[in-house]
Amino acid sequence: MSGEEYSEKKFDTEAASSLVKELRENFSSGKTQSYEWRISQVKALLKMVVEQQDQIIDALRSDLAKPPLETVAYEIGMLKNSCKVTLKELKQWMSPEKVKTSITTFPSSAEIVPEPLGVVLVISAWNYPLLLSLDPVVGAIAAGNVVVLKPSEVAPASSSLLAKLLGKYMDNSSIRVVEGAVDETTALLQQKWDKIFYTGNGKVGRIVMAAAAKHLTPVVLELGGKSPTVVDSNVNLKVTAKRIISGKWGCNNGQACISPDYIITTKDFSPLLVDALKTELENFFGKNPLESNDLSRIVSSNHFHRLIKLMDEDKVSDKIVYGGAKDESKLRIAPTILLDTPRDSLIMSEEIFGPLLPIITVNKLEESFDVINSGTKPLAAYLFTNDNKFKEQFVKKVSAGGLVINDSVLHFVACTLPFGGVGDSGMGAYHGKFSFDAFTHRKAVLYRGFTGDSSLRYPPYTDKKQKCMKALVAGDVPGLVRALFG
């Protein structure tokens, strides 16, 4: 049965159970474990993205009014790169790793053998509906698993397109798409999986983890948090402003888990930073950003009203120093900067995930560490400075999923770096080989022959054997010789 046929039927717990049973049987056949199958499927995915680029751009335009350049750069481009890296490196990733053995197992040899986990579930997010759906799938396929992808129903055009295209391009005996909302996701989570990979918010992440715990299923949770941006006064102000804007409003209009969530800078420097941000925002998006084609819209009415509530709170509304314009009929909110936002305001208590950027001021930049560390660990943290000592302090004192010095969000595009959270911002990581590892069990294998068998390990346990064993465990070769030969 194809992925499209599956989506046409009512998907309940019975259907989910049947699907998992079928996929588990297909995995047991061993087909997906071959290098040839893995490569063929990654190539098929790459071909799909290349051939269907226009459809992908249109779907993301429909769901988010996402500018085509953002789709090409951050979704299509990154996914193509992920496929190409996998095609180049997969044979090496799959190769067993020889490791040393100790004197306690002499004579022996050992290796670590990567093996697929089995039947895995990927639940993706709406803000980057192509990349966050298929990048984990690339890793799951490369590792030799069978996969079920559950795209986000909040991006319906993208979800429908993914179901259609994966049904056409991929091996549907081993790779399936299940569309739907809460009922369908609940039905999927009731099944036993060998790994669940979830991208989204912490509230749903806890539900996913609780469901996985019932089956002792390991999880990767890619969540979010309040990613801080610390700005020193010794920076190139123009470049700093442009890079903050690119990471905030140039990434889906702030609807990205690693967008700068708030800025920390000194009281004296804040007016200069605000002016620089205003200037560059106008250069990028014009005097009326609500009409700009280079800004994504807010994904839904619910998210729109959530953001307006943050912006309209009494203790916050008078802190707006730039922007604040909104158009509910078009679900658009202009880039908005707020200065000296109270720490106890709503906008500082939850991840913003939108085009609002509060600025907190401190007397000394060193106070930023206390501000950041007083909250939960963020998914990302950014620092703009030319002070090498402060850079070292920042890297040492700030715990986050990832750090970037003198830019924002770019660590996400480096496939040699693991991408993932820590604490409340998530667990597990992916990208490049880390995606392969996320869906792989590293199996320990020890090889021995029948020669070199020692009586030390066998009863009766004499005093001599005990002395020898103590020396052996301690790695005391002279002591072992003395014990053996008196």
Automatic annotation (TrEMBL):
Any one cellular-component term (Gene Ontology): cytoplasm
PROSITE patterns the UniProt entry points to: ALDEHYDE_DEHYDR_GLU
Any one GO BP annotation for this protein: aldehyde metabolic process
TM spans (from-to): none
Active site: 222, 257
Protein name: Aldehyde dehydrogenase
Family designation: Belongs to the aldehyde dehydrogenase family.
Source organism (scientific name): Cicer arietinum (Chickpea)
MF GO annotations: aldehyde dehydrogenase (NAD+) activity
Matching InterPro entries: Ald_DH/histidinol_DH (IPR016161), Ald_DH_C (IPR016163), Ald_DH_CS_GLU (IPR029510), Ald_DH_N (IPR016162), Aldehyde_DH_dom (IPR015590), Aldehyde_DH_NAD(P) (IPR012394)
Domain named Aldehyde dehydrogenase: residues: 12-445
Keywords: NAD, Oxidoreductase
Entry-linked Pfam families: Aldedh
Catalytic activity: an aldehyde + NAD(+) + H2O = a carboxylate + NADH + 2 H(+)
Keyword Oxidoreductase part of the UniProt annotation: yes
